[in-house]
Give the backbone structure.
Amino acid sequence: MRDRVQVIARATFLEAVRDRVLFVVLLFAVGVVLFSRVLGWLSIDDELKMVEDFSLSGMSILGLLLAMLVGAFALAKEIERRTLYSLLSRD
């Protein structure tokens, strides 16, 4: 059972890396971190706290967005290739 999960996880990871959407999300993440530095400079109180808070919340939102996009694109590709049906019928 563990081998099957590893094979599926590896295939999903390789397909996700091939998508251009992930690079856009990565660039957006870098932009959020850089913007947090700007907000830190503008902050009156604690620069480091502002950078930490904004970066952590941005990464949380980007992680959610990434999971949704990868899942949606993977499901659409599986339906298009008709490999989803064979996975669902094997239970």
